[in-house]
Amino acid sequence: MAASRGGRASKRGGSSLLRLTVAIILVLIMGSMHYTHFLFGAHLMEHIESPSRDHDTKVRGAVPGVASTLGSQYPTSIPASPSDAVVVLNTKFYTAQSPPTSPHLEFVPSDNSKVPITTKKPAGVSEVKKTLGHSAVDETSSLDETYYVVFSTGCSEFQDWQSIGVYSSAERVGQRGIITRIASGCTSLQEVAIRHAMSHLPNRCRVHFAPNTQVRDHSGSMYKYANKPLGMMHWLNHAEPPVPPASTIALIDPDMFFIRPLWHDSFDAPSKVIVTGSVKVKNVPKRIVKGTMIAQQYGIGSAPWSNGPGRKAKAWALDEYFSKIAGRPFSPALASDLTQASAGTWYSIGAPYIALASDWLPISTNWTNLMPMAVERNFGNLAEMYAMVIAVADLGIRPARIDNMMVSNVGAGGEGWPWVDNLPMDKGCDPAILQDPQYPLPTFLHYCQRYEIAQLKNAATAAGLGGQGQHGNSDVGDLRGAHWMFTKYQVPDEILQCPAGSQASEGVKSIGGNKASASKMKLGPDGLLPEPPIHIKATSKSELRSVFSHCLATRATNQAAKDYRKWFCNAKH
Description:
This protein is an alpha/beta fold. Helices cover about 35% and strands about 10% of the residues.
């Protein structure tokens, strides 16, 4: 009997041990599933697509208008109206750990969200045509959906003309693939107007509408750059038609003009790449594949891997964040070879960023999730960039940092200026140089800087012209305005208007009878910016860079205005 009882006890003990083992395995599996859901946003998108599900109703019922999940780290539904648009965004990852003690941040709508945000997927051109009853571009031609160029904007007129600039310059250089604008936070009226406008563009030019979100910390400070990661994530989950996972996606900024096309073979030879510092040409992938990224060098350094405080006095402390808050002490972002001295080799980068769509989904989800952490440490516009590189590092991706995808600051290193410096001194303003294959050129002009041509400025100043003084040129009758200068902030809004007497498209303004712009840059009688002389000769490499940038930006802006008129002003309804 004793033996028998001992045997039963032994069986019960073995059974208990088996149950314990199974329980541990289940916990590990569920933890892995949690992490997978965190990376791919499955839990998030499930509720964006089906906001009326019981679970969503339950978690939102406690605090009306606030979306919450187990992690509460990113929105689980799109707000239906401004009063229902505050989404709590905690600084923890999607884990089962207790909430962090650090203050959380909030995603909030911008001031222009006075009309409920629509949650429908963007209509195709044919649907817009059917709805609005006007002629639209032909959608039957074949499109190469292996390559996407994407940029994120708001819905203002300022970003409307920048968007036209991207579409126009892409057409001019023969860019293939799909060009997509992600417009965040449009009112219903803005969305209708943009859809209407898009129906007149080439059919590979697309728009995707995303909810408008900004990050606000508890001091009340607003951070407006969160639309880029959230918009990217929203587009990848809701694009219509869907984005093929194997396609290549280049994320650029809206204030970039194409100089040369960007394609799968853009970096397939050493002669097509400029690298500096510790980066080696051999480490630049000839073609984007799974787990790789190519990005432009920016001088943002490697602050997240420093031990010191960020701009808001809160230390970056990535090891503490991933270990105690994220619950993942073995994150690839904490690799032993990533230090403040070394991390810049891979992560001192910015747009354009190029990766596969299948990598962009976890990157954008991680990027969105890390925004509050980055904003707490660096509230400037670099917070969005730092959140991006941490997200990429956390996924174990080491980007290839190159210099030649853009030029921007004429005095900066780490950009594609060596190619511009090789141009003949009298060719910096010659548009023919852009088509000459003997001269390699950067892919984009990132026109976020102010460009001046000293020769024109000095001559205009000597003549009492050129936009000098408090009133610019309004008191001397010089229609050229500050023709020696280009800055995107001085381009008059009315450049995107139709000439008087044209068969203007519905809702499009006509030039003439409008209040003149207060900017120093003035439009000529043709409604375009005055262009510098083609054969202006630079006297130094520094001036050559300024001439090249000024001339290219001015001509690309004018070309965008001309394309606008072609696409909109003479359309038949």
